Amino acid sequence: MSVEQPLWRALAVFRLLALGYAIMQYMSAADEYRYPFGGWAVMGVLTVWTLLTMYAFERPELRGWPVLSVDLALAVLSVLATRWLDDPARVAEGSLTLPTVWSSAPVLAWAIKGGWLTGAIAALVTGTANIVERGEIAQSNLHNIVLMMLAATAIGYVVELARSSERALARALQLEAATRERERLARDIHDSVLQVLALVQRRGAEIGGEAAELGQLAGEQEVALRQLVSDAPVDLEAADLPGSGIGEDPARQDVRALLGRLAGARVSVASPGTPVLLPTPVARELVAAASAALDNVWRHAGEGARAWILLEDEPDEIIVSVRDDGPGIEPGRLEEARAAGRLGVSQSIEGRLRDVGGTALLTSIPGQGTEVELRLPRQTPALNGRG
C-alpha cells in the first residue's frame, strides 16, 4: 500500500534517533551499572538490529511478521535485561531502561503493519516487560504504558482508515474506467448495429409481408440491445478495461479534411483556410460526434432537410457547429429519449466530447431547426503534450 511506505520511512528515522538517545543516556550512566559491559553488548545488538531494520522496512517482502516478532522480542529482552545489568537500587528508583524510547519503535511497527489491535497488543507486551523490570506497577511506568497504548491505537486506526480509503479509490477508478469503456462500446453500437436494426425495422414495415415480420424482430432486438448497453451493470471482475486510446497515436490529422468527407448534396461544410490539426484519436472523436449529429438530422428532420457544418479555429478552443433547417425538437423529447435508452445525443455526441475534455451544447427551437455546438478547449489533457 502506498500509504505505508512513508510511515515505514518515518519509523526508520525515529528508530535511529531513539537509538542515539538510548546510547547517550547509557554513556552518562554506564559507571553506575552493575555490569556495564553487558549494557554495551545490549547497545551493540540494538545498533546492528536498527541498521538491519532500516534496510528491511524499505522492502515490503521483508517487513513481515517474522521480522516484526523478532523486533518486539528484542525490545522486551532489552527492557528485561536492565533489571539484571543495572544496579538494583537504581532499578527500584525507576531509572531509565536500556532501550528507553527505542522500545516503542516495535510497537509502532506492529500498529503500522496490522492496525490498532495488533499495535495495542504489542504495547501491552512491552508494558508488561516494563512492569517486570521495575518489579511493581509504579505511577511512572503506568503512565508510559498508557501513552504507548494511545500512540499505537491511534496510528493503527489512521493506517486502517488510509487503507480503506485507498481501496475505495481504486474501486472508484476501476468503476470509472469500466463505465467509460461501456459508454464507448455503446457509442460504437449506436453508430452501427442499432442504426442497421432501425433501418431494417423501418424498411420492413414499408415493404410488408414477411419483411414486416423481419422488421418487427429487428425492432425488438433494437429495443433489447438499447436496454443492454444503457442499463447493464458493470462487472469489475470480468470487465476488460483497455485504455481509451486517446493519445496513444502521436500523429495528427486535419479536422477540415475529416469533416469534408461529410459534405454532400444536403450538407455544406465551411472551414478555415489553414489546417486544424489535432491528435488523431481526438480528431476522430470530434468528427464522429459531428457525424452522429448529422445522423439525427436525417432521422428526425425529414427527407428534405439540409444541414450546415461550420468549423472554427479559435485561439483558446475549437468549435464545430452542426445546424439543420428541420422542425426542431419538441420540449422534453431529449429526456424521453434518454429514458428510453436512446444514446444518440447522450453518448454518441455528449459522451464523445466529454471523453476528450470538451462539451456539447444542443439548441433547438420548434419550427426553426436544431444546432449542435461541439466545443473543445485547447487547455485539455487530450490536447496538451499528446502529439
Number of domains: 2
**Individual helix count:** 12
Helix content: 55-70%
* Total DSSP E strands: 7
Order of helices and strands: HHHHHHHHEHEEHEEHHEE
Low-confidence stretches: 231-249
What is the general shape?
elongated
Relative strand content: 5-15%
Looking at this protein, list some descriptive labels.
7 strands; 387 residues; 12 helices; transmembrane; two-stranded antiparallel ribbon; alpha+beta; Heat Shock Protein 90; 61% helix; single chain
Write a brief caption for the model.
The strands form 2 sheets. A 5-stranded mixed sheet has the order 2-4-5-7-6. It has a two-stranded antiparallel ribbon with strand order 1-3. 61% of the residues lie in helices and 10% in strands.
Structure explained in plain terms:
- The strands form 2 sheets. This protein has a 5-stranded mixed beta sheet. A two-stranded antiparallel sheet has the order 1-3.
- Mean pLDDT is 81; it is low at 231-249.
- It is built from 12 helices and 7 strands.
- The protein is α+β, with helices and mostly antiparallel strands and 387 residues long.
- The chain is elongated, with a radius of gyration of 36 Å.
- Strand 4 and strand 5 (317-324) form a beta hairpin.
- The longest helix is centred in the middle third of the chain and has 69 residues, at 139-207.
- The chain folds into 2 domains: 4-168; 252-377, 2-Layer Sandwich (Heat Shock Protein 90), CATH 3.30.565.
